[in-house]
Amino acid sequence: MRRSRDVSGLVAAAREGDPRAVARLITLVESGDDLLPEVAAALAPHTGKAQVIGLTGSPGVGKSTTTNELVRVLRGEGHRVGVLAVDPSSPFTGGAILGDRVRMQDHATDPGVYIRSMSSRGHLGGLAAATPQAVRVLEGAGCDVVLVETVGVGQAEVEVASLADTTVVLLAPGMGDAIQAVKAGILEIADVFVVNKADRDGADATYHDIQGMIGLGERAPGEWRPQVVRAVAARGQGIDDIVNAVQKHRAWLVEHGELRRRREARAAAEVEAIALGTLRERLGSIRSGTALQDAAVKVAAGETDPYAAAASLVASLP
To answer: CA-CA distance, 298 to 313, in Å (whole number)?
Structure first.
């Protein structure tokens, strides 16, 4: 009973803006605590209203600096902002620097901003496995805009597109030529492109390469055409243009019913991930018994095939 009251108290405190309560809720999410279903149930009535913006791009393009400047502009507009910055974890030690928030110290004392660094913990796709539920915590805590900054690992870092309402892909001059611009992967998920460090040589070429790539795509009438924005985030230049492009995309999402579709798809992915996690736990119980080994012996001896053995194991799940 005491643990139940603690969850209710944490959620109530988070709703009132207590950063320690928000931190404890996200820690419960990251650790996969057995209280997580209770936390999710308490947060559910307060979620689904925040604008979720994903920022991704290769290392060194200025994601953290851009995020910091976006927070400044959004706070100036009166928004309460949450930031989830995902850092890579070491495949050898499992540790992570969690240093993205170092670049966001301008907002450390602002009660209208909550910044949390998260370790990817080996999860692929640019996010941590706990990121979707951490977004729900920030929504429940009253953040009306949530910025999710990905690890920044390369062209396959596309998971953020399934989490965000709007995906912003940052590029920088010198990161590749026109051929690089048309490669499949991360560039295909962008709703808004930002050519950052636009004061450097080659910025115009990068801008035109991206515009050319967008022009090659086929779109139905009324379909969203990704915006391309120039910025110098380190100087605060072009940030208003990024915000305007994001808001323009949001208006398009609402007008065409795409916002609802994306959020339903996001919810479906969350439910599926939780269900698969439950199945993995049940499969773990099979490993601890003899059923898996017995099936392996039969498959190795040619007495059955692996598909039939797997079907039999699944049918025996508790």
So the answer is: 13
